[in-house]
Every structure is written in structure tokens, then in C-alpha cells.
Amino acid sequence: MTDIVAILLAGSRPGTDPLAKAAGVAIKPLAPVAGDPMINYPARALLSHPAIGKLLILTQTPDLLTANPATAWIAEHPKVMFERSGAGIASTLMTLLDRPGMTFPLLVTTADHVLLDRDMLDQFVAEAKGADLAVAMVERATLLARYPASRRTWLKFRDGWWSGANIFWFGGPQVRPVVALWREVEQDRKKGWKILSAFGPLVLLGALLRILPLRGGIARVGRRFGLTARLVAMARAEGCIDADKVEDVTLIERILSERGG
Hints:
The protein is of the alpha/beta class. The protein has 12 helices and 10 strands. The chain has a single domain (4-249), classed as Spore Coat Polysaccharide Biosynthesis Protein SpsA, Chain A (Alpha-Beta Complex), CATH 3.90.550. α9 runs antiparallel to α10 (201-208). It holds the Pfam family NTP_transf_3.
């Protein structure tokens, strides 16, 4: 299976990113982690995976990546194409979904997913395959068992506290209504109740009363749109550790050192 199109989100949010500012670089994907621009890590993981046939890099400023000696290799890779992204992630994805000739499935992840590796991709692809929509998340006990001091944004459900792992699966253009909803709540991604309420009162009530398991909630959301939707509960704690804050980079660099690179 080499027909998956991977999409690596490498754009900039409005305003100044603290990691980019601290590193003295123009955009966050160029901020160094263990001496290497962070985008290089997930790019290498995706390009080396046998299931990935093509990699699209979405960014508002492709020239900053192609002109940088440390990231120019990405543009030179035969599987890579750059796409200029718009104001928001979901809006850009909507454009891709509507593009004639676009091939599926799509696997979407982010440039700050520095710890992404072959094992995580193997699990996600195996469990997402065949679904219209899949979302990777990590349960709090999984993270705290390995990294008890790590702080994440959590959503509480009957089956635990969950944090996003920044890997998504779109099986085909039929996911367009979900991406359209994502576009509506994009600015509230850290406000869990607003996201849940957008998916309907039963899902919101189930989360608030702790009576709805996340796996069942995602499946129910999928059925609302006529889709097969799945939770991929990542086995690796590192799945939800992205380079979002200075303390995240410190932890990631320690993990990379323990891995040996």
C-alpha cells in the first residue's frame, strides 16, 4: 500500500509564534529542535514510510523552506510537492478535497510533530485503513505513565481523559462536511466544549456528564454525517507531545537523546 497522500501542515498562525521568536527564525517549522529544524523530523518519518506515496507540504511561505539550506532537501525529494496554504488549515484542506484528480486516502499531520516515527505511523495506518475519518488521540494514563510532568490539553470522557495526537485520516471527499465544521470551530481548538457542542447536543451532554466514551462519540459523530469514523488510541505516549512550548522542546530533545538521535 503506497497510495496514501500525506499532508504536512507547516503554516503560520496569526501573530508571533513564541518558539520562532525565541529561535530567531521567521516561522515555527524552522525553529530548531536538537539542532535541526523541527519540520525535518516528521518529513523524514513520512517520506521513509512505505505506505506514503506523496507528501504535500502546506505553508504560506514555501520559499522560506526551499531556500533554507537545512530544509532544502525536502523540496528536492521526488515525493514532495509544496502547496501554498490559505488563512486557515480547514479552508486549505477544503480546497484540496475539491480539487479534481485528488487521490485518497489523506493522512494529515503537523510540522511540530517532531517525535512522529515509523511505529506510530504503522499503528495509525493499520487502524484507520478503511474508515472515512479517523483521529489519533492519547489517553492521559498512557502519557503520564511515561512522562508524568508533561502538560497537555485534555478532554474528559467516560473512558478517560484524551489529548489529540495531531494525526488525521480522510478516506475520501465524503468527509467534506466534517472539514467544513472544523473550519467553523478552528479558532476554538483549545476550547473543548465549543468543539463538542458543534457536533451536536448529545455529544456535548455525554462529555459533560462523563457518560459517553470517546470511541463511541467519534463513531456517533461519523454516523451523523453518514461516515465511518474511528478513534485511533495511540499506544505510544509520544504521540501527543508536540513542540508547542519551550518546555515541550526540552522534553522532546531529551527523548531524542534517549533514542540516540
